[in-house]
Specification:
Blueprint (H helix, E strand, L loop, with lengths): L5 E5 L1 H8 L4 E2 L4 E5 L7 E5 L5 E7 L7 E5 L8 H19 L5 E6 L8 E6 L2 E6 L2 H20 L6 E6 L2 H5 L5 E7 L9 E6 L2 E6 L13 H10 L4 E5 L5 H8 L4 E6 L2 H13 L6 E5 L2 H10 L7 E4 L11 H18 L5 E6 L6 H15 L3 E7 L18 E7 L1
Parallel strand pairs: 1-4, 9-10, 14-15, 14-17, 15-16, 17-18
Antiparallel strand pairs: 1-3, 2-6, 4-5, 5-6, 7-8, 8-9, 10-11, 12-13, 18-20, 19-20
């Protein structure tokens, strides 16, 4: 049967990559394209020998010019197709998140078959980031269907707020978008803020101005792992952001907690969250550069902490800067290890997929050698299951989280 989509023929290299499970075709791998299409349309991908390899969004403005959606030639990419895929993603979250379904990531890009789309749920508010032209073209269909799917499950959606302002949009030929796609609140002029509960702790979330979608949901269960170690400990939480690790440590029974962040706004929010949860006296929040703060503690031979948490932002967002990022991660980890007493505990992580798990392990080995200590591994963890990892798509595996005892 004649297919209604334009036809993209790719190199042998791309054919091998797609057959191995990859979901991207790069512009230099396209041999030819035929048929009528608009940028952002679905196209069919074929090998040089005419074998169908899959279908995906096409955008010549992007280095990743084809983002694969399906390998099934029977898919038609109509409204029913998108609804089925959304239903599948939402049902998965309902199953794996259980009681935490009210605050979780509903859509995680390629891991759910929606390249360039992220949707986080905070109660009755959905915060979306659209970073591909293909999803931009169909976002109204997706957002409306998502509302209907959640409504059928007895869940209310009052707001869908877009935070589509990442640099990747420029590379897709798209302008930044930030604002409400849907707002059913009685007072639409109210601030874009709400309160969520995670692990029994309440947080103020500013989904209009906070980082990313306003709150980092991926560390949910890693915070619980830290809380289990914190009882009776003197805890230092570095790069605290909203204070989430600090507050989980306090809830876990920490003796004292010091939380550090360079951002005035983050410090103010972390203090507010500490007060709101009744930990204002236990959690001290400081505005400081973590690198300088750790260096000063080391210079003064201070050993004030039994548990140090390192949750830095991504030090690298490309392969070109991995070497510099390696040095940065190595430095803060070595300093933390030197500051801890023998028998102290370290929670450390990286949220950059360019800093692979093997690289992260290597830098921790190097940091331990720099510090002259040995590491006893307690746990090695990853992102929460609402950020699922597809083994054939390495980019979906990005968060590395390790718990050690320094011996």
């Amino acid at each position: 049967m004649e297919r209604p989509f334009a036809r993209v023929t790719v190199t042998e290299k791309a054919e091998k990559s797609l057959k191995s499970g990859q979901v991207r075709v790069f512009s230099e791998e396209v041999v030819s394209i035929s048929g009528d299409f608009r940028q952002g349309d679905v196209v069919d991908v074929y090998s040089g020998r005419g074998k169908y390899l899959g279908s995906g969004f096409y955008n010549a403005a992007s280095k990743q010019c084809v983002r694969l959606l399906s390998r099934n030639p029977n898919d038609r990419f109509d409204e029913a197709f998108w609804r089925r895929r959304l239903q599948y993603a939402v049902d998965y979250r309902k199953t794996v998140m259980g009681d935490d379904f009210s605050a979780c990531r509903l859509i995680f890009g390629d891991a759910d078959g929606f390249p360039g789309l992220t949707v986080d749920r905070f109660g009755d508010v959905l915060v979306a980031e659209v970073l591909s032209l293909g999803c931009e073209r169909i976002k109204a269909t997706l957002f409306n269907a998502l509302c209907e799917i959640l409504s059928a499950m007895g869940e209310t959606v009052s707001v869908i707020y877009e935070r589509s302002d990442g640099a990747i949009r420029e590379r897709e030929g798209l302008s930044p978008v930030s604002g409400a796609f849907l707002d059913r609140r009685p007072d639409r002029t109210a601030p874009h803020e709400l309160t969520i509960t995670e692990n029994g702790i309440s947080y103020r979330v500013n989904y209009g101005e906070g980082q990313k979608t306003g709150f980092f949901l991926d560390q949910k269960y890693n915070r619980q792992a830290v809380a289990r170690l914190a009882r009776g400990k003197r805890v230092l939480d570095c790069f605290t952001h909203t204070g989430a690790f600090a507050l989980n440590a306090a809830k876990g029974g920490a003796q004292t907690v010091v939380a550090v962040d360079i951002s005035d706004a983050a410090v103010a929010l972390a203090r507010e969250n500490a007060e709101m949860n009744g930990y204002g006296d236990k959690v001290q929040v400081l505005c400081a550069d973590v690198f300088d703060y750790l260096a000063e503690l080391e210079k003064n031979k201070r050993h004030d902490f039994d548990l140090i948490i390192l949750d830095p932002p991504a030090f690298t967002k490309s392969n070109a800067t991995v070497r510099a990022a390696y040095r940065g991660y190595r430095e803060i980890n070595a300093r933390a290890m030197r500051l801890l007493p023998r028998g102290g505990y370290l929670a450390t992580c990286s949220c950059s997929h360019f800093m692979t798990a093997s690289l992260f392990r290597n830098l921790l080995h190097d940091a331990a050698a720099d510090a002259g200590v040995s590491l006893r591994q307690i746990e090695e963890r990853q992102q929460a299951p609402d950020h699922p990892i597809l083994w054939n798509v390495p980019e979906t595996e990005y968060l590395k989280f390790c718990l050690f005892q320094v011996v």
